[in-house]
Amino acid sequence: MNLTEKTVKQNVVFEGKIIRVRCDDAELPDGKPCKREVVDHAGGASVLYVREGKVLLVRQFRYPYMEETLEIPAGKLNPGEDPARTAARELAEETGWQPASVEHMFTIYPTPGYSAEKIYIYRAHGVREGQVHPDEDEFVTAAFYPVDEVLSMIEKGEIKDAKTIIAVMSLRLQK
Amino acid sequence: MNLTEKTVKQNVVFEGKIIRVRCDDAELPDGKPCKREVVDHAGGASVLYVREGKVLLVRQFRYPYMEETLEIPAGKLNPGEDPARTAARELAEETGWQPASVEHMFTIYPTPGYSAEKIYIYRAHGVREGQVHPDEDEFVTAAFYPVDEVLSMIEKGEIKDAKTIIAVMSLRLQK
Taking every annotated instance into account, which residue ranges of this chain make up the domain Nudix hydrolase (chains A, B) (predicted)? Predict the structure, then answer.
């Protein structure tokens, strides 16, 4: 079965700092016209850092939900930036911990119905302590949580962030 | 540390069929003004159905990535709809399998930096075979895959959808 849809015309309806939104004229596999709403995003890179059986999580306010969340450190790719570099940079900026290297774990599609964002998940290795340099409009606090406690918070719905759930579950599955 | 941001003014910049986009005037914890880009969405409900050690996945074309994906069945909530009902409905419509009940597994935040969407993940129970009724502009094919094969496809990056990864990993962790 052919499932392929075609773009007839891209129509940008919003160009923001974080996202660009399109409402494209497209064509279904059977040739019928349709509209497709798409959120373009440069991509997000996140990083799992485990130290003595504890996971480093950042607490921050997430405006879309109007609530605080606990997540692994993450940030948006700069134009043309290697996501591995973004992950290492965000870990250092948000938490002060400086990785010697990061290893790719997953590339995930957070919500493929309308977003074109890819979220890269890395694991940090050879980490040294350094200085915190958050972005000007970023307020975060970082702390370590035992892996079992994080899994229990996921189970209880206290941690809902998709990339964080995947990174920590996969850590437990590798055991 | 107070992390709370405040809405000064909501500004809707795009009102689509699937998403609504805002570029709000907001206030940082220190009182400084900022802009916050938000994608509003009615919410998505998805459903894990396991039959004889195999997971039911749907193959579909995802326009934002211009590629086919394998995902657990899912769909958008109708206004005011209980997500459990959406999950049961989407399973039946997309695959023909009719659950007697669905059990809540997780509520996840797919990409909390800009989206307010909540994705609900359910597990289907008491499933009977029925008829397929996809939406008019929806082209999907459904098939069963052994749990180990799905985990291997996740490992190899062949399955990238966040809700699918979380549902299947959690299945293995429960064992």
Answer: 39-167
